[in-house]
Structures
1.
Amino acid sequence: MPKSDLEIAQECVMEPVVKVAAKVGIPEEDLELYGRYKAKLSFDYINRLEKNPVGKLILVTAINPTKAGEGKSTTTIGLGDALNKIGKSTMMALREPSLGPVFGLKGGATGGGYAQVVPMEDINLHFTGDMHAITTANNLLSAVLDNHLHQGNELNIDPTRITFKRCLDMNDRTLRDVNIGQGPKANGVERNDGFNITVASEVMASLCLANDLMDLKKRFGQMLVAYTFDGKPVYARDLKCEGALAMVMKDAILPNVVQTLEHNPVLIHGGPFANIAHGCNSVIATKACLRIADYTVTEAGFGADLGAEKFLNIKCRYAGLKPNCVVIVATIRALKQHGGVAFEDLKEENVQALLDGCGNLAKHIDTVQQFGLPYVIAINEFITDTPAEVKALQDWCAENNHPMSLSQVWAKGGEGAIDLANKVVEMCDKENNFAPLYELDQPIEKKIEIVAQKVYGADGVDFTDEAKAQLEIFKEMGWDNLPVCMAKTQMSLTDDVKIMGRPTGFRITVRELRPSLGAGFIVALTGKVLTMPGLPKIPSALNMDIDENGVITGLF
């Protein structure tokens, strides 16, 4: 019986974080310690990095996820360890896990097998309190807003047109739509409200795109919270609470320093969902890594149709980043599922289904190529992969001139990605023609159509009447020069969770648009995507426990 990810992580003898940070020249006095194995990086140190040269940036993305698993975070960590093994000074910039998926179905975000970041339990649970700070800041704004209504509503806010929602870092479907302020007058103004999961909060998105604390405070002030009775926008700055929100975030804005199982330094900071928000770790952490090490490996959530598209169209645009190489992760198991094989039959050899599923991989490759970037396909090997299936996939890559590497990071850690690391270094030395897919001065609907057609392969986009009305309002307000952040199911290139592979002849439906002005983008909700997930029939939480010695079980 193979060891679980948790058992492997618990066996790791961690090095003090001070020693790990020293490997890349971070002085002890620039670390704010959270025990022996976690720390935050000071802004004094981050500011001093400005004089350092910028290293190479590697983005790890994947095919559309399936129940079979792809191992994107595992590959990111294993690749970072492998680059260090071949003598390249390398750091990793990762996202913080959300408790929603941890206790739900998807799991955490610390990698797997022998390619993990530790302390695994801490990172997947409360870590350094960043999620709590984001939740608190978000709900402080909601409390101030509702108190303003109760205390006389000087700003003439229409309670039926409040756009800002409360949040909680948990999958709780019962909170999607709630009625607040019920009972006596002292309980406030009664109105309809709702909750997003914390990682879908605009506070989270703003944190991850901010340059520093003062920039974050400015972004908080720009957040739209409501409209007045005569249709004028009301911003957080009108409620005069952006300073308090920034105060709550004074520690959360600092990147977290941890280590891999092989004791290489990692910055983990921020974690917006990629199917709802932009799905990337913070600009602050990414830029810090780029000036600390020669190579930075980072990831973007879900497939290239979501996280990578937003990384390249939104994050890189705002942060002035230019990736040097993209790694596209896939597994034979997942490709067979995209080729029509049921999950319970994936252990059976099926070369034809594998080749059929390669259509999904081909579309994500096409997307990366459209951005003008070199790439390597990383095939995350499983013990159930047969020699015939591996050869068929290698032949498919060779016939289509796709650089490819077999990765064994789950079983071997960095040693299992030496070939991948060498190919990535080779690609990073190539010139590339990176450019976003659309211009900011194009109309919102045009930007959405470009993403739908070029990235998803859709024939076009249909806007509901509500979305059309919102487009007109946004144009009047001057918000139409922002990038678009597509909220779409991660399971399909379409907006229908059930359609796998590489479908054609479909259209995308945009049902609602939300201005996320603090983050700096317009969110387009497609299909049936939700900003507050629910728990599955058997949540992962039911298999978790802790004993009298504090030993955790069941956490993956």
Note: The longest strand covers residues 507-516.
2.
Amino acid sequence: MLELLRIRDLALIEDLEMEFAPGMNVLTGETGAGKTFILKALNFLTGERLGPDLIRPGKEKAVVEAMFMLDGQELILRRELSADTGRSRIYRNDQLCSQESVRDMRSRLLLHTSQHGQQKLLQSSFQAAILDDFMNEPALLDKKEVLVKALADCSSRLEALERSRLALEDKRTLLEYQSQEIAKVAPKAGEEEELEARRAVARNQEGISRNAAAGQAALHGGEDGPGLMHNLAALEKAVGALAGILEEFSDMPELLMDTRHAMQDLDARLQKAAGHADREADMDAIESRLYVLAQLKRKLQRPLDAILSLQKELRENLDFLDSCGIDRKALLREEEELCAELARLLASLNKAREGAAAALSEALARELRVLGFSEHLRVGFSFTPHCLYKEREDCAELRARLYWQPNPGQPPQPLDRIASGGELSRFLLALVSLMSKAASEKPTLIFDEVDAGVGGLTLNRVGESLEKLASERQMLLITHWPQLAARAKRHFVVSKEVIQGQTYTRCTRLAPEQIPAELARMSGNENA
């Protein structure tokens, strides 16, 4: 229940506070005084947007705050709109919260019915949604949405598979040619660089052999005498003896031993160089392999590392072309399974809708007769199959459209073709009454001129229905009819006044003794 509403610096409202009672609270006043704008402020508080141009000129921000009773506890909501940034902040019990969290609880706080709702009532999609709400089978509806989404995803994957297949199929000959050419050569990573290095070695074979032999001769000696290794051993022996006698030679044996190890390593390298030169003698084989690699690069017009990457890509694409038939069959099988599951669900959902349509039609007709419609009134729903997936008849759901027969002897007609504004007002009131009875939540009902187009004795019927509904739920009612305003437990008058060139919207709660004068004004009796 809405207990208190305060609005500051919003449009023509400087500071307005309203304390509401249980039951019917009525807002009256001349057209354009700002009654509907008070309801806009409530909508803003519960998640809808307002532009910064609606902040009162010269003010830093507009503030809307309200106190509700929800589940036996006080709930205070406040929303501030900044003039500088145009952004807003929402507070729940003085704690910042998100707009989404407030929107989520909106259905528990307010149910706003307006002339806009009458126009929505003319839309077949809205009529279908009303029936689904009355049916109260959210599990079926949620499961339907899950299956429809899964089918859409399956269809997207099928289409993507087919697009890829067609794109690659057109290039299959080229892909196979490139793959075969690469397979013939069978290049390896780093092969070209290795061959270039081997070629460089082979081209310097003579110099390598000559210098390796000269180095070995220097180390091991020859006809001219012993070599460096022999002399180093003799030197190491002599210095070792001196180190045992003289302190200044103590570090020399280790140094000479390291030198001997270095010479041994050098000897091994020289032997390897001599043998390596022998192994690299086949220059023709190296040049032949480099030529084959160069030919492959020219054919495919890319460097060798890119060819190796291409080889992997070609293999993947050709494997895809070979396996896409299997993948397509798997997707088609998944599609059939989802369609079968959707068909079973829709059979249950359509049956539930038909049952709910019969119950809703009967209940709605009763409510409308109470609101002044003929005893002969008939209301019903017509169903049209609507395919949810690829024009498949087994995946068709029944979409409802509201028909009615206001007078006997006439064929039923869609509501949007023959209903007047006053009739739509009563239809909307009847639907809200039915939904309110069925709902477990009890939000405050807001009726914004739902009595439009209604008059005479019918207006009394509407008033009785509103009064009965207000006995069960809190209601805010904007009206221009004194017959309805007279039934309120609390009466507020909204007016405009100009002070020193500034316009202000005021809202005054009437005392019991002030109400007759306002009702007389509403009836056009200025002398009352």
Note: DSSP finds 17 helices and 17 strands in the chain.
